Every structure is written in structure tokens, then in C-alpha cells.
Amino acid sequence: MMKMLGRGVYNITEAAALTQLRTARVREWFRGRRSGTGFSPVFQSDFPVVGGDYAISFLDLVELFIAGRLRELRVSLQYIRKVYTHLETEYGKHPLCSREIFVSDNDKKKIFTRGLSDAESKHVIEALTRQCYFEKIILPFLHRIDYDEATNLARRWRIFEGIVVDPSLCFGKPIVEEVGISTMILSSAYYSNARNAGRVAEWFDISPSHVQAAVAFEDWLAA
Fold first, then answer.
1. CA–CA separation, 5 vs 168, rounded Å?
2. pTM > 0.85
3. Which residues pair with 53 in a beta bridge?
4. How far is residue 113's CA from residue 95's CA, in Å, rounded to a whole number?
5. In the chain, where are the structural domains located?
6. Model confidence pLDDT, tens digit, residues 20-71
């Protein structure tokens, strides 16, 4: 357990809810598919399998989220897998957590990257060919990721208005950013007390708006 501290811990069901992906898809991307048309996993979890149970880290979660958004943009899984393997070979583990990811705004849907360091941030390059790209590009999802200045790795995910996922806090479970309290705890207290945000806020010495933010997030997860 000590090796998991500060890294975030999420089971397959939690990861699916946070990324808004199907549980079966998340399982397949980390475990592979056991069938006649099976394929190997897309990602390798930072944590070993224990008793058949899978857990993934915060960095695994961020890459899962990014891959899910790429699929929503109609980028093929085969191409994502190829790009990921190439970037991992070139930049090391968790390459999607250390580089900005761009997608060309046309039917070809190519993936482009830009490094976070001062030297690399000046150029956007095609992920496989390393050619510079000057046409229109879109960056549809990474504005919500904060990066560590020392490591250039993702360190915090602003998953919802006022809500963050931070592996250094609450084992990486979603919290209300301004007060650092679990959204699940606040939401449960709200529904257990006749949906009285003011009462719950008094108990935790926070604003009712913090309670409402937690409830809105948990309702979004459950939808």
C-alpha cells in the first residue's frame, strides 16, 4: 500500500465512472480481450494485479481519459495504440501525461504532440513522423490538466466545475478543490439530511455552494 500513496488508486469501475467510459472498454484497455478476436492491453497499469483485481494509478487514469476523448473524436484505437507505443519508446512511461496532445481538425484525425519544457513547447509535431505541423489544430480536453513544473507530468485533473482529482489528496478521490473534502462524503451527507445543503455546510464549516458542487458532480457521475 505504501507504494500507492500519493499516486491515486482506482478500480476499473471507478475509472470508468470518472472518465465516462464503458466499464467493459476500460477493462479491455487494461486487461485485453479474451476471445477469438482478442487483443493485448492498450495500457499497462502502474500497479500489479492482486487476486484478479485490477487497480490503476492517477497517471493511468489521465491517459485513459485522453484515449477516451481521442476515440470520441473518431481516432481509431489501432492508431492510438501505435502512437502510444511510439511515444512511450521515445519519451518513457506515461507519454500522454507529459505532453500536450493535439488532433488535426480534418478527416484524417492525426495525433500531434508538443512538449511541456521551454525547448519543446515551441513546436507541434506529428507524433509518428516528427514533422512540424502548421495547419489548424484542436486541443479539446487538456486545458483541464495541471502539470508539475519539476517533472512535467500531470499532477491534477480539474474533472468538473470546482472539483479536482489530485493523487496527493484523499488517495486521488474527487474532492471539492477549495475545501479539500471528498465529494462522496458531502453528497452522501446532503441526501441523508433531506437535501439540506445549509445544514451540511455548517457541519463541515464550509459554504453551501461547496456542498452543491459536490452533489452536482456525484449526480453527474451517476447519470
1. 8
2. yes
3. 50
4. 10
5. 2-173
6. 999 999 999 998 876 556 678 999 999 988 777 889 999 999 999 999 999 9
